[in-house]
Write a structure and sequence with these properties.
The complex is a heterodimer of chains A (131) and B (309). Chain A is α/β, with parallel strands linked by helices. Chain A has helices spanning 19-30, 44-53, 68-81, 100-105, 118-128, and strands at 6-10, 34-37, 58-63, 88-93, 110-112. In chain A, 40% of the residues lie in helices and 18% in strands. Chain B is 52% helix and 14% strand. The chains are: A alpha/beta (131), B alpha/beta (309). The complex binds guanosine-5'-triphosphate and magnesium ion. Guanosine-5'-triphosphate binds at residues 53-59, 94, 97, 145, 190-191, 193-194, 221-223 of chain B.
């Protein structure tokens, strides 16, 4: 059976920049993954519904303007509410280091700061997909 | 598997999504599910939307879907984008233009990469369409970029094929080259808010006069939502014509014939490449061909004889 990792790259919140998210999306594509890109201004509800329809293995959330709280944990909560426990949730963007443990405590699987080498993200996903 | 299929029939979106994934990965366990799915499919109107890159297919599909929702019809969308032949990865970006549909529970959107499938690209798209159909969607829209033969083949799934182009000669020629002229049931000149739409319409019409196959031409501006009502009228007229003339039956028979052959071919390829005994003998045959001991045609006879035994 052909196995292909599918990643939803989503941009919750109101800031209008998705350059970082696009760079990550392209890196994942170049690593052989299928990347579903949905554009700016996604609500947590849209993100979770999209991840379900697309049967994504991974949700990659990107936020630049402090939107990671409460939006990242909200995505995790909605997944739980829908009974989904096999999607890896990772975050990136501009996130103050002191917030990272809080995000993880809230159920985000991993958080990558700015300047994380792209292949580190690729490797993390390959090692940690849940199905 | 049976339970997954039953859930999909009831419209459970996680089950639908998981079944489509199984179809995409070429899983053989899908058969059990399709035994249940297939008898319940065949109600939906399947609309193919194709055209060269960037003509506005996704934007237009979103507008169409919004209109169908206003009419109370549920909608499934399968959006196919090319997979890179070098990395096997794909950037599936059609949803960027479909965000107004993202939180409507009566709309299901699935993005697909063309992948390098053994079973052919169309296989997974056929299955996805059947699954969405059986789950109760009234309208199913398939988007493909009209670039190669594989994509043109995929669109043959559709009952009604809409070929989208934009004003300007470059895309017009691209569209002809891609072989999209022949498959159109309806032409759309999108981006008609730009100059030159009229002359593109005229060129289409004079081309059709030469080939003596006249199909409707609709001008739209997907970003303004203009012309979409007219397009849906033509789509509905076409579907009615298909039903009245018995052409619908013929098209569906052609669809299932193509699908049947593809499944068989896919399984054969899998046997040749994946199963140990064949891989060995194929390897040996290739060596003999390379060394000039055997010609490829005679070698093929041997492989076939082995498969049929
Ligand atoms: N001016 C104008 N722009 C449009 C119209 N429809 C779409 N666009 C723009 O054209 C660009 C491409 O639109 P898409 O809907 O992504 O086109 P597509 O054919 O799906 O593209 P691919 O899937 O990449 O082949 C976007 O920037 C749209 O906003 C239109 O009617 N008028
Ligand atoms: Mg598109």
């Amino acid at each position: 059976m052909e196995r292909k990792i599918r990643v939803l790259v989503a941009k919750p919140g109101l800031d209008g920049h998705d350059r970082g998210a696009k760079v990550v999306a392209r890196a994942l594509r170049d690593a052989g993954m299928e990347v579903i890109y949905t554009g700016l201004h996604q609500t947590p509800e849209m993100i979770v519904e999209t991840a379900i329809q697309e049967d994504a293995h991974v949700i990659g959330l990107s936020a630049l303007s402090g939107a990671h709280f409460p939006l990242f944990p909200e995505v995790v909560r909605l997944l739980k509410e829908r009974g989904v426990d096999d999607i890896l949730v990772i975050g990136g963007g501009i996130i103050p280091p002191e917030d990272i443990p809080k995000l993880k405590a809230a159920g985000v699987d991993e958080v990558f700061g700015p300047g994380t080498p792209l292949n580190e993200i690729v490797e993390y996903i390959r090692r940690n997909v849940k199905r | 598997m049976r339970e997954l299929a039953e859930r999909a029939l009831r419209g459970d979106r996680r089950a639908i999504a998981r079944l489509i994934s199984l179809a995409e990965s070429g899983s053989e366990s899908l058969k059990e599910a399709m035994e249940i799915i297939h008898p319940r499919a065949g109600r939906a109107h399947v609309i193919g939307v194709t055209g060269v890159m960037g003509v506005g297919k996704s934007t237009l599909i979103c507008e169409m879907a919004l209109k169908y929702r206003e009419m109370g019809k549920s909608v499934g969308i399968v959006a196919v984008d090319p997979t890179s032949p070098f990395t096997g990865g794909a950037l599936l970006g059609d949803r960027v233009r479909m965000n107004p549909l993202a939180s409507d529970g009566e709309v299901f959107i699935r993005s697909m990469g063309t992948r390098g499938k053994l079973g052919g690209l169309s296989g997974a798209v056929y299955d996805a369409v059947e699954i969405l159909d059986a789950s109760g969607k009234d309208i199913i829209i398939v988007e493909t970029v009209g670039v190669g033969q594989a994509e043109v083949d995929v669109i043959r799934i559709a009952d009604t094929t809409v070929v989208v182009l934009v004003p300007g000669l470059g895309d017009f020629i691209q569209t002809i080259k891609a072989g999209l002229m022949e498959i159109a049931d309806i032409f759309v000149v999108n981006k008609s808010d730009r100059p030159g739409a009229d002359s593109t319409v005229n060129e289409l019409k004079s081309m059709m006069e030469i080939s003596e196959k006249m199909v409707p031409v609709v001008c739209t501006s997907a970003t303004e939502g203009e012309g979409v009502d007219e397009l849906l009228v033509e789509v509905e007229n076409h579907f009615q014509m298909l039903k009245d003339t018995g052409e619908l039956e013929r098209r569906r028979r052609r669809r299932y014939e193509t699908e049947l052959v593809e499944i068989v071919m896919g399984r054969l390829k899998k046997m040749i490449y994946d199963e140990g005994r064949f891989r060995e003998s194929v390897g040996e045959l290739v060596r003999r061909i390379t060394d000039g001991e055997l010609d490829p045609h005679s070698a093929a006879e041997e492989v076939l004889a082995g498969l049929l035994r």
